[in-house]
Design the sequence.
């Protein structure tokens, strides 16, 4: 079959610019597996006779069956009759290409799935889960083996991507894959404060994440501009601090839905409630939480970061975060700590007095005083946490379970310092999706090697992964999907695949296929590589 | 009412960053009218009792009634979205109770059109689009000379209406409006990526909401040939990305033209030649120049082959069809970015040039273009050309519009108009040029007449176009890529030259982008953090 295609294309005199800029691959996996061997032998996959077969005695039958249903639907959709009908209308009468083809192995009737560890249907993906799997498609059939249910989910995604349309049939080549992630923390960050994003957009985003083997949804829930999280203990926060108290809030049921939708896809949901800066919206209902800013010894009508000098601030945070830690089951919580503006604290005479009374000699010290209260609280709640890099840089005492989220321009140096101090690092500096350039605009994300800093092997092991960040100042529900996809796919491959998978030119044809695959699955991905077409 | 709102907001201690970056205006018009006076007096508009009233004896009743239906639906949709507000659950006193500014319910807009018109009228070059709109205690009246002016006025009227608490409101307003430039275009490339018809229709909606009046349809290019020709169906059969699902059927084209026409938008097709034609070669390689390396054909094909009569015969047949399909008086014949290296490599071309005393490749290009323009003259069609055709010295009639697009556009515009030719400007409105952020300030702060030239030269600049090249744009991101960024171009082309303050425009565009969202246009945020209700 492949030889035939090559022979045909050699007959055509081509003008260089005709057709797509980059020809898509067929049945290549994104992110690229660690080890993969393929032959030209192939099966035909017919959705209506194909089935997934799980172990009869598995402890998490719902998790696995739900995944089977999702992936069966994806395969069936790729076989849509409309698509084949369109192909038929090309008016070319094909001989069924597999007739008389020596490479044809027959119809693939099932994928056998094995999970060796015990599991339960309420299992939560967590830090350090084993996501390895092996996948074999050969003359004997197809088998997927994983230690954990999460590894099985990754393998099912891979299996679904190996199947491609050839003329009017779905085809899968004989393939052997041994796969595992390079990094255990593979995140996508989404800001729902600068613009509110409806739940269906978040669910689509989770679908896109599953298609790229991301495993952490970092939900930047609140910021200066709005407070869309509807709290049970302080409902006034969103009643007054959201862009709209009804239509621009996440109800408890919305949050639960997102968490469950993510969980069954093996994606953790880590909420961020940024403090003590980026909290203006909290002040819409509770101005007393924020520092009163002064000009000429008078309150000037503005409110600054949280007021670290009042016990009531910590009581409030205690009550809210106790609720939040109960709502979000993940073992980690992102407490923010970035970009605290000291000028308002400096202007406020009560803060000055407080610092003097408590022997705090710098505003970094004051910030540390605040953060220390928050981390003590989370320790008490038995929750671990991520912090933005400033918290580490400013010298807050952090336990070794803390993940330091490195985001600023000098990220590699910071990562060096973080890991030198024995802390875990999560890297985002080169994956800011709000940084735009003309064109397909993912090469810069792809050509970023997160371990490209001076450090020992042990330091590098402390880098757990990274996150692509979608800040939404200029993004709303209408452009968020094509802004994220397929650009975040670059980050996904850097975080999953081997370090040696770093050739942009080699990745282009695979991403061309993958972007079309995502389009077919309902993800509004933009074009990755210039002129082209998805059929 | 306005005083009340101001008083309320003064009571709230605000932290600077809370809420949207830019607060939207209410009932402000985009693009900004030439003259506008507003008072705080207002009517309530109730969709189910409001209606448009046209002249009983108008010659184009369908054009006008269709517009009435469209705009009534937009008002009704806005009204329906009030339900969202009502869900806030706050009990308001009806805002107009005891309000001295309330003028009552607005029952109708009376529309007058003084020129004669017909239902099959086509918008054309130089149409009068002026209108006046008056809303006062006596009621509301829209007067225009032409049906096209009436359409512009209806758009303005619909934008004056805004939500205030749980009612639709329109302030007493007097507007006298007319476009600064007569040619206000949006260019869309459907070759680099195919765009389905529904996206083109949505784009035309967006254009109407911004008073654009020319849809420049860049139908073909190197990458694909989606136009399904009657005389040469093989062009799309082999040259489209897919012969069935990625082509524009004759019925699709007719639908686009009609959808545009009733909105007062001209559709100007572009079939770019002699470069940007690789896709033609998928079915007709003989049209293109065979490129040589080391005295051998190297397997690549270049621009059209200007040395063969058969090339011109083919173009003649195709363009005769196209001029029949697209009713506009203008046709865009391209002529940009012709690569001379393939011509240089081909020995037959060299012989041809020598036989015909053509001494340069610019001269050869001119030979080609001259044939094409002679053909269009014969077909009684006028044309636009990309600036290279002028720069390279092709003889052009004074009806030609020279489309200036390259970086040094202002100098070119100066030269074009100095030569007495019409100019259309796009150099600073390339929508594929991306930067972080909301990314329309650069489009807004471009003044198209900012070149050295006499008043008479400047009058020759008929307008401009925002260009959406689609190398990196498909059906999933084209709408937010175009909108609201192209709104900046729309305002530069419609409003007075003095309307040039980015800061002053932002609150209006904040409102307008939300208005477009409500009307189904997937516009991205114009000004940073914010929201639309």
Sequence:
């Amino acid at each position: 079959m492949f030889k035939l295609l090559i022979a045909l294309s050699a007959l055509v005199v081509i003008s260089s610019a005709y057709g797509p800029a980059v020809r898509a691959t067929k049945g290549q996996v994104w992110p690229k597996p660690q080890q993969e061997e393929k032959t030209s032998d192939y099966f035909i996959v017919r959705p209506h006779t194909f089935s997934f077969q799980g172990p009869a005695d598995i402890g998490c039958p719902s998790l696995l069956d739900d995944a089977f249903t999702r992936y069966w639907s994806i395969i069936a959709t790729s076989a849509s009759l409309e698509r084949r009908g369109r192909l038929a209308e090309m008016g070319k009468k094909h001989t069924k290409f597999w007739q008389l083809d020596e490479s044809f192995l027959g119809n693939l009737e099932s994928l056998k799935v094995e999970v060796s560890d015990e599991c339960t249907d309420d299992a939560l993906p967590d830090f350090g889960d084993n996501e390895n799997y092996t996948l074999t498609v050969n003359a004997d059939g197809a088998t997927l083996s994983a230690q954990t249910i999460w590894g099985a989910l990754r393998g099912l995604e891979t299996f679904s991507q190996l199947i491609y349309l050839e003329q009017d049939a779905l085809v899968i080549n004989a393939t052997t894959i041994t796969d595992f992630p390079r990094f255990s923390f593979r995140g996508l960050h989404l800001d729902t404060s600068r613009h509110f994003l409806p739940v269906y957009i978040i669910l689509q985003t989770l679908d896109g994440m599953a298609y790229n083997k991301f495993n952490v949804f970092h939900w930047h829930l609140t910021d200066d501009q709005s407070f869309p999280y509807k709290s049970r203990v302080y409902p006034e926060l969103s009643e007054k601090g959201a862009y709209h108290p009804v239509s621009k809030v996440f109800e408890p049921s919305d949050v639960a839905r997102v968490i469950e939708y993510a969980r069954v896809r093996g994606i953790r949901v880590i909420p961020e409630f940024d403090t003590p800066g980026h909290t203006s919206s909290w002040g819409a209902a509770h101005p007393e939480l924020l520092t009163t800013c002064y000009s000429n010894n008078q309150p000037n009508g503005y409110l600054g970061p949280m007021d670290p000098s009042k016990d009531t601030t910590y009581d409030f945070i205690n009550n809210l975060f106790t609720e939040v830690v109960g709502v979000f089951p993940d073992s980690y919580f992102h407490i923010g700590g970035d970009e605290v503006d000291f000028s308002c604290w400096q202007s406020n005479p009560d803060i000055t007095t407080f610092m003097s009374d408590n022997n705090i000699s710098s505003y970094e010290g004051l910030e540390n005083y605040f953060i220390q209260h928050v981390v003590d609280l989370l320790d008490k709640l038995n929750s671990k946490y991520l912090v933005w890099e400033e918290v580490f840089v400013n010298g807050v005492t952090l336990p070794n379970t803390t993940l330091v989220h490195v985001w600023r321009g000098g990220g590699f140096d910071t990562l060096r310092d973080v890991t030198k101090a024995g802390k875990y690092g999560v890297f985002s500096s080169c994956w800011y999706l709000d940084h735009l350039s003309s064109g397909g605009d993912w090469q810069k994300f792809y050509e970023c090697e997160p371990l490209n800093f001076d450090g020992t092997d042990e330091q590098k092991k402390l880098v757990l992964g990274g996150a692509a960040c979608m800040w939404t100042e200029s993004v709303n529900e209408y452009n968020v999907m094509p802004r994220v996809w397929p650009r975040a796919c670059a980050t996904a491959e850097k975080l999953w695949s081997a370090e040696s998978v770093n050739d942009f030119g080699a990745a282009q044809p695979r991403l061309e296929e993958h972007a079309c695959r995502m389009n077919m699955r309902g993800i509004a991905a933009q074009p990755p590589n210039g002129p082209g077409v998805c059929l």
In short: The longest strand of chain B covers residues 35-45. Chain B touches chain A through 66 residues (CB under 8 Å). The mean pLDDT of chain B is 93.
